[in-house]
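Please describe the entry underneath.
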Amino acid sequence: IACVLSGLPESIIAAACARSGQSVLHVDSRNYYGGNWASFSFSGLLSWIKENQQKTDIGDECEDWRKLILENEDVISLSKKDRTIEHVEDFCFGDQDSAEDVEEAGALPKLPVFGASGAEGVAQESEKECPPMESALPEAASREPEKATGTEPASAMEGNDTEISSENEGSQSTALGESALELGKTEAAPSENSAQEPKKITYSQIVREGRRFNIDLVSKLLYSRGLLIDLLIKSNVSRYAEFKNATRILAFREGKVEQVPCSRADVFNSRQLTMVEKRMLMKFLTFCLDYEQHPDEYQDYENSTFAQFLRTQKLTPSLQHFILHSIAMVSENDCSTLEGLQATKKFLQCLGRYGNTPFLFPLYGQGEIPQCFCRMCAVFGGIYCLRHSVQCLVVDKESGRCKAIVDHFGQRISANYFIVEDSYLSESICKNVCYRQISRAVLITDQSVLNTDAEQQISILTVPPVDVGKPAVCVIELCSSTMTCMKDTYLVHLTCPSTKTAREDLEPVVQKLFNLNTEKETENEEQEKPRVLWAVYFNMRDSSGVDRNSYDGLPSNVYVCSGPDSALGNDCAVKQAETIFQEMFPTEEFCPPPPNPEDIIYDEDEIAAEESGFSNSPDTKPEPSTEESSSGGSTAVKKEDDEE
C-alpha cells in the first residue's frame, strides 16, 4: 500500500492496512504529519501563513525520472502546488510596545497593526527561550519539553504521543478508562474575582510563549459515542492520546451569550428557565430519544423544516432557539424535521458517557489524532517519509491499473494499492469536480466569551446567521488546560460553510462577540467583550462530497481521500477510511484490537535462545509491565513499539 499525505482518513487506512499484515509506505511532501488536519505552534502557524500567502510552484528536483517510464506505461502527474487554502489574512491587535521588546531580543521588524506574518524568525528564536510548561496534568507536562521549535507544527514533533489508560471491563462505554474520564472532568479552580480585569497580554508574550500553542487548522470535537471514539477504543489507539470533556454548551441570543442546560441535572438546576419551561424541555427531549416509536407526532411535518416543527411543539421561543442552535446544531432554513430529530437524538445519546456534554477534545489539539494512527501503523511495520514528494503515478496501458509511483529523487516504488489525498491530484483530473469551501478563523483572546467562577472551560457556541443567506457559525473556545494556548489566553476557532471569503463570512460574528478595537479607550459595552489579540482568516477546500466518478481517468486501484469537512464531528473521515479499506480487503477486519500478551506465539528458536540465556532481545519477555497491564493488555503493541 502506498499512501500519499498523512491526513486523518489516510492515516486510519494506513493503520488498518498495517494491522492486517500489509506492507505500508506513507509519504508526505510536507515536513509535518496531518496535512490540513495538523496542529501548529505559533511560529509554525506563522510559517504556514507565509507559505500559503506566497504559493510558489515546486520545480522538479530530478529531471531524469521520466526515463523510468516504459513504453507500455502512462503517467498521471501529481500536483506540486497546494490549492486547498485560499484568502489567508492575519491580523495583530496587540500593543505595538510589545513589538519593540521582541525586536531587541530577536530583530523583529516593526509589526503593523494588521498583518502579523513577518514574525516567523523571532518566533523561532523566542520559542527556544521558552521555559518548560507548567501543567496541572503530570502526564501532559512531562512531554512538553520534548517538543521541537521552529516551523515544525506541534502534531509533527517526535515524543508528543501521550498514552491513555484504557481499562476495558467488558463494557464499551468505559473502554476509554478511568483516567480518560477523570481528564474529561473540568479541572476548574474558582477564580479569586471573576469580575476582575484580564491580564494584559502583549504580542511579544505570545511569540515567546509560542510553544504553548497548538493551533488546529480544522476545528472539530469528538462525539462521545461517535465513530471515531468507537474506533479509538476498538483499535486501542486511544492509549496514544489524552482527552478532555467539553464543559459547556453556549447560545447567542438577543445579543448575549448564555449557557444552555442540556443534561437532566443542568435543566433542573438552571435559573434561566422557569419551572414550566423545564417541564416543556424535558418532555420534548424525552420524545426525541425515541421519536421513531411515535411517528404520528412528526409525520405530518416530514416535508417541513425542523424550525417549523419546533413551533408546533408548545415550546417557548427561547427553548426553540436552544434546541435548534445549541442541541441539534442544525440550519434553521435547510434542515428537515427528520434530520433535526436525528441530530437531537445523537446529541442526547452522547450525554453522560464522559461528562455533562456529548463532546471530547484531544489534549494538544485535533492534530494529535492523525498522528496516533500513524504511530499505530509504524508499530506494525509501516514506513513513514516526510518531506518526500511524489512526481507521478505510473499506469499500465493494458490493464489500466496503477503500478508504481515515482518520487522526487527519481526512485520508482511499486505497490498494489495507492491512497491519494484530493489536493495532490492535478487540475486535469479534477476538471469536472465542483468543490465547496470552508471559512475558518482562529483568534487568540484575553478572556472567555462567558466569564464564570470556573476559568478553565471548553465551550461550544453556535451563532445563528447574521443575515439572510448566511450560514450559522460554530465557535469552539479552548482554555489553557487543553494545552492549546498559553496561560491567561483563550484559543477561539470559528467555522462555517463559505459564501464569500473567510473574513467576509466570519468577521461580522467576531465583531458581535469580541472587541477588535486597538485603542485603549473604548465604550463600556466593548470593554465587557473579550479582546482579540491576534487573528487569522482563511478558506479551506471541502472535498468530502465529491463522487469518485467525478475524477477523470483515475485507475481502479487508486483511491482518493478528501480533506476536512465542515461538520463538527469526524464521522465522514472514519466512514471514508472504512469504505476504502473494505474495497481493498473485503475479507479483513477493519482496525482490529492488538493481540493480548497471552495470545502471542513466539518462534521456537527465539524461545530456546531465551531459555538458555542467550536472547539478544530484551523485549521478547511476555510478562507485561505495570503500565502495560493498566492499559488493558496491550503488551504486543508496546513490545513492537519499543522495538520501533
